[in-house]
Each structure stands twice: as C-alpha cells, then as structure tokens.
Design goal:
Strand order of the largest sheet: 1-6-7-8-5-2-3-4-14-13-12-9
Helix content: 10-25%
CATH topology of the largest domain: DNA Polymerase III, Chain A, domain 2
Number of domains: 3
Structural class: alpha+beta
Strand content: over 45%
Order of helices and strands: EHEEEEHEEEEHEEHEEEHEHEEEEHEEE
CATH superfamily of the largest domain: DNA Polymerase III, subunit A, domain 2
Number of helices: 7
Oligomer: single chain
Length: 368
Amino acid sequence: MFIEKIEKDNLLISLQKIIGIVERKQTLPILSNVLIEKTESNIRFIATDLEIQISTQFSDPNQTSPDTAITVAAKKLLEILRVLPEASKVTLDINENRLLVKVNKSKFSLQTLPAQDFPKVLETLEQALKIQIEQGKLKKLFGMVQYAMAQQDIRYYLKGVLLVIDGSFLKLVATDGHRLAYVISKLDQEYPKREIILPRKTVNELIRLLADTEEKITFELAENQVRMTFSDIILISKVIDGKFPDYERVIPSYTNQLTLNRIEILQALQCAATLSNEQFRGVRFVLTENNLRIISNNSEQEEAQEDMEIDYQGTALDVGFNVNYLMDGLNSTASQTVVLSFGDSNSSVLITIPGNEEFKYVVMPMRI
C-alpha cells in the first residue's frame, strides 16, 4: 500500500497546482509524469519540463504505510480524480510497474516509471538575492505587463518578463518589439540591484497560481535560476540568458495629451475593430481640436468610424495603431481614466494613468 484512504480533493487540488507545465507529448516520456513522494505523513507532487519545476505537498497524519515514491501519467491521473464522486476516499497501491487507484468499487490501473529516473531540476542558488512581496500585489503587476511578451520571435530574450530589483523598487517590463509595458512598485526595504528575465511559461504559471491575498511570496534570485516559495508551492525556474532592450529609451515624453474615460475609449476601439483588417488589425486615430475620430477599414472597402468629443487643443494628428495592442493595455488596468500622449504622425502613443507614474504602455505606430 502506497497511500491509504486519502481525501480525493487533497490529491486533486495538489495535482491541479502542478499540471500547468506538464505536456502530453514529450521527447522524454517521464516528463509527462508526476512524481508522487510519500515521506512519513507528507505527500508531495512534483512536475518538471526541465526548464521549470513545480512542487506542492500536504500532510495526512493517518498515513502509516512505508515511505516510497513513483511516477505516473499526470493528466490521466487528473482525469480519473476529476470524475470520482465528491468526498471520495482514494487508495493508491503500487503493484510492480502499475499504480492502482481504488475508490469504493472502482479500480484504475496506470503504467508507472521509476521515481529514480525522474529528472528533478538541480538547484543552483549560490549568492541568491532573497526578496518578499505580497502575492496579490505581484499577480496584479504581472497582469499589467504579461500580454506584451513576444510569442514567436527569434529574439529569445523578448519571450519573457524582465524583473528588476532596484533599491526599494520592483520593476517589470515586457516587449515584443511592437509595444512595451512597464510597471514599477515599492518594496518594503532596499535590496542590491538585480535583473533577470523570467520565461513566458514561468510568468503564466505564476499568474495562475498566485493568490489574491497579502500572503507573501519569497523570491530567491540567482544568476541562472530563481526559486519562488508561496503558499504550499515551490516553483524553480531557469532564467533567460540574454540582454533585454534598454526599455528606458523606448518610453517617450510627449506634450500632446488627452485624458479619456477608459471604458469609453475601449468601447470605441471594440466597435472600430469589427471592420478592421483581420491580418493587420489597424485603426487610424485622427486627432483635431476637441475631437478624436477612430477609423478602420478592411480589404472589402468596408469602413467603421467612431467619433469622441474630447478636451484637446494639441497638434492635429493622423496616426495608425494595432487595435488589439491598444485594447490589451487598456484592459490591463482598472483605472477609470487614462492619458494618451502623442508625438507626431510617425510616433508611438504612450498610455499612462493620471497622477500615477507606476504604469506606462507604449505602442508603436503602423502604416494603414
């Protein structure tokens, strides 16, 4: 007997926490498995893709069977646990190279691979810088920049978020070369300066797993690796080895500004987007005194036009942008109003929050 009559929800919740990095199709079959370790009354789940490792554990003082470990297909076990009746008691039994999952009169037999073959990530955290920040706060900050990460780009250093510790400030920056999102937040004490690039997959897992609470997450930042400890989770990740662009040079300072209701400009962009070119997703901003006209058209010569009355006495402009990029930035903040700052008809737009220097979002212009 491996694990005796344990609450189904304890197994299911633990498995759901680590399942995000498990892929069905792997070059190494064992990477599709979860490592389950029983040590005294503690039961630990570990998953890895060789770049990231997530582990979580819970305790059950009623466990009396000998300590052991096994690996089993993570997604198959998850599917089994999901369909079991609520409040079920589950028994896991190892029989040669099989894991038997028993619940009442149901029994499932799953293939296993040896625990000793599971490739745990080697921790290399020498001279790591340790910081702490509230989980809910960090989740919000990541949400304000993550959409600007590059997806398919040969510049691998863009496929993540730059995390900068600078004295008593934390900065997060993401860019795909067409737009840049930046957010800064105060920490509770001063730290030595440190910069790392967190991979896209790590960022997405953090956003999924972080709780909307004031409970702290502990970061240990080393040169090639970072370990994050929060709630009952330990996430270890490689960092991207590369030189992130000089983001401070990209953020402009413009004098042509207008303040808009965030929901109203979002709705106007959504309307214009309905007839924008499906491939390029372009819209034109035509700025004149006290009026903003948003225009889109497509290859069928169809056109949408939205007019907004605004308080604007700056330079008249006609400039194009990717409408999805604009909406991404506007959706990333809950502010009631936003400030749009412009240079000329060949310049980017800077989106900020009134009276708040923490968030900056830059979108490059496009020809329409």
